Here is the input.
Amino acid sequence: MPFPRKLILGALIAVAPLLATEQAVAARISNPVAVFAGIDKITGRITTFDVYVNETVQYGALQVTPKVCYSRDDTEAQKIDGFIEVDEITLDRKIRRIFSGWMFADSPGLNAVEHPIYDVWLTGCKPQSDIPAPAKATN
Here is the structure.
């Protein structure tokens, strides 16, 4: 017995959004440079700085280390995200982790690092920086 036409059309209509969603997922592009903004709450100065993935840059009393920084290709809406670790250097020179997690450039308030003096958030990812890449150690 053949399937009724309404049943087949109903099934296609129900599945179509799922198929479109699968095709709409954009491939992530892994970038070697993460771009951050930071504010010094004492002076009110906002600073933008680049950090190479798996390298650490000190911003005030904070050490910022991006582990990954993802973007999408130019044909897709940009969704910038990165996995970031931030350590604080305390007054007694100890290092303590104050943040480890995902930051999203589209929602800087969602997972920004809030410190009594410094705030830091991810603003972008890029394939290269004007700052030279750190030299790799050779054995």
